[in-house]
């Protein structure tokens, strides 16, 4: 170090300061162990409805009433976790699935479970859920919105729990 010129010593000092600053930045950006696991995450999705996403990718909608409608793809409150969602369970007393509820980057959504209290599936609700293979529609269902299951390319089975007359009344 003694053999260096003053200019070279200044560069070495600046370099050392830069390394120290970068180390501090890395320390600040590395989450603590207890912060790494963010699950479960949850929020609201309608007047008296809530959602909760578990670490295994299961999203549960619970409460009583109707889900909010969403304007477009990836505008849902759980949209930040879209690629992680593998299954959706809609619990008893939920009356609707909103427009565009699962429209967007839900490429890993494979299964949905719908309650016998569900009356409406909104427009584009599951549009583009490419891995969804089957759906069992409850007898209580009175409305399926336009393009609700559009581009669900693996959807091979859709069963309706009601009779032919009730099925004919579906809008």
Give the averaged pLDDT, no decimals.
87
Q: From the helix content, strand content and strand pairing, which structural class follows?
A: alpha/beta
Number-wise, the strands total 11
What separation lies between the terminal Cα atoms? Answer: 82 Å
| Broad shape | elongated
Main sheet properties: 5 strands, mixed
User: Regarding quaternary structure, how should these chains be classified?
Assistant: single chain
N to C succession of SSEs: HHEEEEEEEEEEEH
Using only C-alpha atoms, the radius of gyration works out to 25 Å
Largest sheet, spatial ordering of strands: 1-2-3-5-7
Give the fraction of residues assigned to helices.
10-25%
Runs with pLDDT <50, length 5+?
none
Q: Which range does the strand content fall in?
A: 15-25%
Total of helices = 3
Describe the structure.
By secondary structure, the chain is of the alpha/beta class. 20% of the residues lie in helices and 25% in strands. The protein contains 3 helices and 11 strands; from the N terminus they run ααβββββββββββα. The protein has helices spanning 6-29, 33-36, 164-169; strands at 41-46, 49-53, 58-63, 65-66, 87-90, 94-97, 111-113, 120-121, 134-137, 143-144, 157-160. The strands form 3 sheets. It has a 5-stranded mixed beta sheet, with no helix packed on it. The longest helix is centred in the first third of the chain and has 24 residues, at 6-29. The radius of gyration is 25 Å and the shape is elongated.
């Amino acid at each position: 170090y003694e053999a260096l010129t003053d200019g070279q010593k200044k560069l070495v000092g600046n370099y050392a300061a830069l390394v120290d600053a970068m180390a501090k930045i890395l320390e600040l950006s590395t989450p603590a162990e207890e912060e790494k696991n963010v699950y479960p995450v949850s929020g609201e999705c309608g007047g008296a409805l809530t959602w909760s996403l578990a670490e295994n990718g299961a999203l549960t909608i619970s409460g009583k009433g109707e889900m909010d409608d969403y304007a477009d793809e990836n505008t849902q409150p759980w949209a930040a976790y879209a690629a992680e969602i593998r299954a959706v369970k809609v619990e008893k007393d939920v009356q609707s699935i909103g427009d565009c509820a699962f429209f967007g980057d839900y490429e890993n959504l494979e299964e949905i479970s719908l309650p016998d209290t569900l009356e409406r599936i909104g427009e584009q609700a599951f549009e583009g859920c490419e891995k969804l293979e089957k759906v069992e529609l409850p007898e209580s269902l009175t409305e399926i919105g336009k393009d609700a299951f559009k581009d669900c390319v693996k959807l091979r089975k859709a069963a309706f729990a009601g009779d032919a007359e009730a099925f004919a009344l579906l809008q």
